[in-house]
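User: Teach me something about this protein's shape.
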Amino acid sequence: MKNNFLNKTLKGAKTNLILILILSAIYLSDGEEEITKKVMSAVTDPNRIKKDDLGNPDICMVAYYHNLFTKVEEVKTVCEECKAGKRGCVACKKQLAKNIIEELKPIREKREYYEKHPEEVDKILIEGTKKAQEEARKTMKKVKQAMKLNYFTDDFGDGEKNHQ
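Assistant: First, the predicted structure itself:
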């Protein structure tokens, strides 16, 4: 594994599984090579040793991810070829990596854009914060009215006592 510190400090089956999941996770910051490397290291049907062995997509994590990132018609073909021993795991993983890269491409491009334009991120966060604060004020006014806790405020909930 990559990080010796984590290997020494995390012990047991559950923590090892968590560590494997963390190290094999595909991040939006991962480049195409990194995505391909992670997909190619994915575990497939453990009973399938050779390419022409009959596979079982129902127990294969690569087939599971094909359902998420591959077109329905392609998934059927992938599974049929796997079951018939006509498609090897390497070809299956390569196709999955290509599909994941293609699916994540617009998201990764947008992420890259915002990394280069942090001032826009700040603007979005400031505007979002203002909207959230206004919604929170409206919600708290309703909560106070419903709980009859609005006796020190006027009709606008601004904290000023109504002296009529």
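Now, about its shape. Residues 1-11 have pLDDT under 50 and may be disordered. The chain is about 65% helix and 0% strand. If you'd like, I can walk through any region in more detail.
User: That's plenty for now, thanks!
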